[in-house]
Amino acid sequence: MMIPRNVELTFRAVHGNDKTNLYLLTIRGIIKKIERRFNGRLQDPYPKLRYHFVAPFILYDCTILALKTAPPNVEFQQEILALKAFQSPKFVRLVEYSLEEGWMLLEALNPGVTLREYDISDDEKTKIALSILASTWQPIQEAKGFPHANEWLRSIDTYKGEDIPSSIMNLAKQWKDELLSTSCEEYLLHGDFHQGNILLDHTKGWIGIDPKGIIGEPAFDTFPYLANELVNQRDPYTLLKRRIELLSIGLGIPRIRLIQYGFCRAVLSSIWTLEEGLGSIKDGITSWNLFLRVWEELEDQKKN
Fold first, then answer.
1. The predicted structure's pLDDT at residue 208
2. Of the candidates 214, 219, 207, the residue with the CA atom closest to the CA atom of residue 244
3. Residue ranges of the chain whose pLDDT lies below 70
C-alpha cells in the first residue's frame, strides 16, 4: 500500500516532516491490524486525493466501507467527533475509529460522485446543498472539544504579513468584530461545506461528508459553498449573487451577514494559505473582491 505522492506532500506541508515520517513508518502496520480486526481487505485508494488517504475497505461479507487516515492530529480527531455528533440521515455514517492512531471507517457511498461533478444547473445544486446543510447543524450542548469561530477568525488580528493590503485587513477586522458582537444562536457547524463534500449514493441520495466541526452561527458555515468553483466561471459575480440570494432565502439569514462572513473567510483562507506555504492566494484575492463587490452593490441599493 502506497500513499499517493500528492497526499504525502500535503501531509508534510500541513503536519511537518517528523509527524509524516512517523505516519509513513507505522501506517502499514496499523492497516494490517484493522484488516485482521474486521476481517477485511484494503483496496487501492480513491483518485483525486489531496488532504487524506482514503480507500475502499471490503469486509468478508463483501460489504464495502471506506478507510480514511492521516497523521494523528487535532483536526482529524475533531472530524471524528463531528461525525459522531452529526446523527442525520443526510450525513455519512461513522462505523469505527481510533483517535490515537488516526483512522476512521465510514460507510462507502456509491457511486460517490460529488455535487461539483454532477451535470445540473448551479441553482439545482444549491437546492440540494440546502436540503443537507441545515440538517447537519447540532445544538452546542453536544459540542464538546470543538473550536469556536472566533478562534479561527483570530488569525485576522494576528496576521503580520504584507501580502494582503492593509485596507483589506482593516475591513476584515472591522466586519469580523461586528459579526461576532452581533452573533445569533450558535450551533456545531460543518466548517467546510461545499460542492466537493456532497456525494451521491444510489440508496440514500445526496450525503454530506468531511466535517471539520466548529461552533458558530449558521452564517459562518456558508462561505465554502458560496466561494467554491467561482473563479473559473464565465460570470462569477452574477453566480455569487445568485448563490447568496438562494442561501439567504433558504436558511433565513440576512444577505449582509453571508456577504460579510464570506469576505472575512476569504481573507482568512488567504492568511492560512500564506502561513502554511500552500501556494498562491490568487483565488483568495478574487473571492474577497467578489464579496466586496456584492456588498457595494447592496449598499448602493440601500441609498437609492
1. 95
2. 219
3. 1, 142-143
**What ranges do the domains of the chain cover?**
5-108, 114-303
Fold held by 114-303 = Aminoglycoside 3'-phosphotransferase; Chain: A, domain 2 (3.90.1200)
pLDDT at 140: 78
Q: Tell me, what amino acid is at 1?
A: M
Nearest residue to 196 via CA among 67, 11, 49: 49
CB neighbourhood size of 167 (10 A): 8
The burial of 81, by beta-carbon neighbours within 10 Å (0-12 exposed, 13-18 middle, 19 or more buried), is given as buried
Three-class secondary structure assignment of 51-66: CCEEEEEEECCCCEEE
- Can you give the chain as a three-state secondary structure string? CCCCHHHHHHHHHHHCHHHHHHHHHHHHHHHHHHHHHHCEEECCCCCCCCCCEEEEEEECCCCEEEEEECCCCHHHHHHHHHHHHCCCCCECCEEEEECCCCEEEEECCCEEEECCCCCCCHHHHHHHHHHHHHHHCEEHHHCCCCCEHHHHHHHHHHCCCCCCCHHHHHHHHHHHHHHHHCCCCCEEECCCCCHHHEEEECCCEEEECCCCCEEECHHHHHHHHHHCCCCCCCCHHHHHHHHHHHHHHHHCCCHHHHHHHHHHHHHHHHHHHHHHCCCCCHHHHHHHHHHHHHHHHHHHHHHC
pLDDT score at 139: 81
Query: Domain 5-108 class?
Result: alpha beta
Cell of 90: 443526510
